[in-house]
Amino acid sequence: MQRQGSSGGGNTALRIRVIAGGLLVAHLAFVAWLTLRPLDVPWVLPPNLRPFAGIEADLALGWQEGVRRITEGLALLAPLGVLLPAVHGRIAVSPLASLVRTVAAGVLISMGIELLQTGVPGQVVDVDSVLLNTTGVALAHSAVVPAARHWLRRRTERAHRTTTALKEEAPQGRTPTIPRVGIAP
């Protein structure tokens, strides 16, 4: 996942970035279809602009139903926590900076979805969706990305050491000489 062209890892890094990019586009298309399609409902609830009011209402429906709805909110954008850093493609980056960038992108995408839902029949704006989606992005990023970057760094260092050892073992021939060129008239 390095941007710099390393001897053996360049193709792997490019493959990871391309696959992650394709998965990112597919996931965002699925999220758009799921959240921005019109719903045929007899009435529409008013928008929820009070933080945690929707979560309280979900839990008031019963423990299982509340946990199911909260889990859905956490899981909707959670793959972005892994896919966005993978598309970015750097393995040597500050973990905190990566988390902040990824969470900021998750907030912007979630807020964009909520803004677009204002014009979709049957869809209701809910500030708790933004909170849950953002938390899901942060949890997925924290659970996967640091370990994956550590694994990739170790793999890259091991490949670099192997390549260096092979180059040192190879016999060296004569040093090439360049004929002298005089000053032109």
TrEMBL record:
TM helices/strands, residue ranges: 12-36
InterPro entries for this protein: Teicoplanin_resist-assoc, VanZ-like
The keyword Transmembrane is assigned to this record: yes
Swiss-Prot/TrEMBL keywords: Membrane, Transmembrane, Transmembrane helix
Positions of the UniProt region annotated as Disordered: 160-185
Domain VanZ-like: 25-142
Official protein name in the record: VanZ family protein
Taxonomic lineage from the root: Bacteria, Bacillati, Actinomycetota, Actinomycetes, Kitasatosporales
